[in-house]
Design goal:
By secondary structure, the chain is of the alpha/beta class. It is built from 13 helices and 17 strands. The chain folds into two domains: about 110 residues, Urease, subunit C, domain 1, CATH 2.30.40; about 300 residues, TIM Barrel (Alpha-Beta Barrel), CATH 3.20.20. The strands form four sheets. Strands 3-2-1-4-15-16-17 form a seven-stranded mixed sheet. Bound molecules: guanine (GUN) and fe (iii) ion (FE). Fe (iii) ion binds next to strand 5.
Length: about 425
């Protein structure tokens, strides 16, 4: 049933970045698309089935543009190191376990079920180098009703023997086969090319992935300018690259023809940012991960002002939670510390900006997603904040702001993706 009306307290980000609140209003879904928000229900929709959500809040679903599904199993653990040691000590050993489909079945079952019960309606996800486990992950995500892009990771150098593909050709052959197996198999789950990051991919592998992206029209995701040690390593590996992002761009893996997401961009320089803007690269801002791994704080409000495409991401398990409200609050807090301690030129992120990047910013990767505007795909989370007690009447806006800091899965009363009720 994709034609219906929901009544309740409706909030979403307008195009200009401010949050609009419509108390006691109607939002109409027609064939999976939003037809608009109305104070009084127009006559033409009077016959559609109506669900009265009472005093609950209705918001667009949130988009998480960068998560590592195999790392969900160790979320909240191993936060005592910086990126490169953290990868070698915790991440690579855990990811190697996904060679075993029995383990992948258990772990990915837990991941997909938690993501389904979260605020997230759209996600872009890393798997591991193992194609069978990645396909299994895609099957589970398809069953969840969430819309996602999922990547089989590519790694053919500078990685331990137990988590490295034999060579570029073996990696590319496995990737092409996996694309053919999955690209038209699912309604809501799609493949995305996923070179882990420059240090773990040879030029030959990156070049081949660029060709696959062009041939099969597949988007790309990777990591960029996250950590000082990583950036220095990339400089040593590719001394002739103009900047880190250039190492992707020279192989057609940096936006333009196909959409591209780069996670982090904490320490991107002017040239890198200019090229990202030109190519429409999405920045997956991952503030909890950047705090946990002591990577730094990206100047997000500046990126937004510069007209870059900014989205928000949990980056589990650098990040410790899938709760995108916690990621929003983490982004705001980190930006305030950056402003106080480092640079008063870059304003702290506002609540309106954080909500914008969590909904419209990331939603844009999926098309018209992330707002209750006519023609947008109907993704909606219904929040019941009645258990978050308060001693006085609060405005709708104040209730929404509180949810960002105080609520999680337990306050979700219902969840719709593309007009389908999945919770
Ligand atoms: N860079 C390369 N791999 C990873 C990863 O798994 N997590 C994060 N945060 N950064 C990376
Ligand atoms: Fe990551």
């Amino acid at each position: 049933m994709k034609d219906f009306v929901l009544k309740g307290n409706i909030c979403f980000s307008a195009k200009d970045g401010t949050i609009e609140c419509h108390p006691n209003s109607y939002v109409v879904c027609e064939d999976g698309l939003c037809a608009g928000v109305f104070e009084r229900l127009p006559e033409q929709y009077a016959n559609l089935p109506l669900t009265d959500c009472g005093d609950q809040l209705l918001i667009p679903g949130l988009s998480d543009l960068h998560i590592h599904a195999p790392q969900f199993s160790f979320r909240g653990l191993g936060m005592d190191m910086e990126l490169l040691d953290w990868l070698n000590t915790y991440t690579f050993p855990e990811e190697s376990k996904y060679a075993d489909l029995g383990y992948a079945d258990r772990a990915y079952g837990q991941f997909a079920s938690q993501l389904k019960s979260s605020l997230t309606t759209r996600a872009v996800i890393f798997g591991t180098i193992h194609a069978p486990a990645t396909t299994l992950l895609m099957e589970k995500l398809e069953d969840s009703g969430i819309v996602s892009y999922v990547g089989k990771v590519n790694m053919d150098r500078n990685s331990p023997d137990y988590l490295r593909e034999a060579d570029a050709k073996a990696s590319l052959d496995a990737t092409e086969q996996w694309i053919c197996d999955t690209c038209s198999r699912f309604a809501n789950t799609h493949p995305i090319l996923t070179p882990r990051f420059v240090p773990s991919c040879t030029d030959e592998l990156l070049a081949g992935l660029g060709r696959l992206s062009e041939q099969y029209k597949i988007p790309v995701q990777s990591h960029l300018s996250e950590n000082y040690g990583e950036i220095q390593w990339v400089k040593e590996l590719l001394p002739d690259a103009k900047f880190y992002g250039d190492a992707y761009d020279r192989f057609g893996l940096f936006g333009g023809a196909q959409p591209c997401i780069m996670a982090h961009c904490v320490h991107s320089g002017e040239e890198e940012l200019a090229l990202m803007k030109e190519r429409g690269v999405f920045i997956a801002h991952s503030p909890l991960s950047n705090s946990n791994l002591a990577s730094g704080v990206a100047p997000v409000s500046q990126y937004m002002e510069q007209g870059l495409r900014v989205a928000l991401a949990s980056d589990v398990a650098g990040g410790d939670t899938l709760n995108m409200f916690a990621v929003m609050a983490g982004a705001i807090r980190a930006s305030k510390l950056r402003w106080r301690l480092l640079d008063q030129e870059v304003k702290p992120l506002s609540v309106d900006q954080a909500f914008y990047i969590a909904t419209r910013g990331g939603g844009e990767f999926f098309g018209k997603v992330g707002a209750f505007e006519p023609g947008y795909e109907f993704d909606c989370v219904v929040l019941d904040d009645s258990t978050i007690v308060h001693p006085q009447e609060l405005s709708l806006r104040a209730r929404l702001d509180r949810c960002f800091y105080l609520s999680d899965d337990r306050h979700i009363a219902a969840k719709y993706v593309r007009g389908n009720k999945i919770l």
